[in-house]
Amino acid sequence: MPGKAELYRTTARLLGAMDKTGLMLRYRYGDRRLLENVVLPALDRDPAVGTVLLVGCAWYTRHYPQLLPATDVITMEIDPAKAVFGGERHIVADMAHIAEHIASGSLDAVVCNGVLGWGLDEPNAIELAFSGAVNCLRPSGLLLLGWNDVPPRNAYPPSSIAAFGKLEVADIPGLRTHSLVALERNQHCYQAWRKP
Ligand SMILES: C[S@@+](CC[C@H](N)C(=O)[O-])C[C@H]1O[C@@H](n2cnc3c(N)ncnc32)[C@H](O)[C@@H]1O
């Protein structure tokens, strides 16, 4: 039986080969399409955005750095085996330890989709992760959170996380709203804030 790392390596190789033939395997759900076709491109078009951290990598996010061609993208993922789905600048780390890897005030945006409640589950780690992310943002930097407002994923919603209290609500890039349920079925919400 191949190990997980070998399985992910093979998956990444196969998907890379398929991408080159033009047969791009992607999730086609509305929440993904919104993120990939509207939100990330709008972030990339923002002249004030130079460096973005994307947290959490999977086979279906491997092309996300390409959706931000004008931006310096850093990816971060706790599972070393998933580094094959990360970008060129990839950090294997727990987001709770973000401060050990990324300089204070050095990021223009953090995109943290599907991590809160999907491995980032413990209150102390959640606070460390988001207070750390806020510290890494420059003033006016953007924090985009994607989370599922359904049990058990919503045990610690953003309203319960102290770090978000330090931020101001902002529009989601490409949309004129701070908060949106992008997929009803699993209550996948996108919400955006700015560092004052
Ligand atoms: C549901 S996937 C979401 C992937 C992607 N961000 C997206 O847009 O869907 C959750 C990923 O977050 C990673 N993850 C969970 N907890 C983490 C943490 N504390 N720090 C960094 N990555 C974490 C998991 O290993 C997994 O690959």
The oligomeric status of these chains comes to single chain
Examine the secondary-structure arrangement and name the CATH architecture.
3-Layer(aba) Sandwich
Q: Name every ligand kind in the structure.
A: S-adenosylmethionine
For the biggest sheet, the summary is:
8 strands, mixed
Q: Give start-end ranges of low-pLDDT stretches.
A: none
Number of helices: 3
How far do the termini sit from each other? 51 Å
In sequence order, what are the helices and strands, one letter per element?
A: HHEEEEHEEEE
Average pLDDT figure:
96
Number of domains: 1
Q: What is the level 1 CATH name?
A: Alpha Beta
CATH topology: Rossmann fold
Structural class: alpha/beta
Number of strands: 8
Strand content: 25-35%
Helix content bin: 10-25%
Cα Rg: 16 Å
Shape label: globular
CATH homologous superfamily identity: Vaccinia Virus protein VP39
Topology:
Layout: H1 4-21, H2 30-45, E1 51-55, E2 72-77, E3 89-92, E4 107-113, H3 123-136, E5 137-148, E6 168-170, E7 179-183, E8 188-194
Parallel strand pairs: 1-2, 1-4, 2-3, 4-5
Antiparallel strand pairs: 5-8, 6-8, 7-8
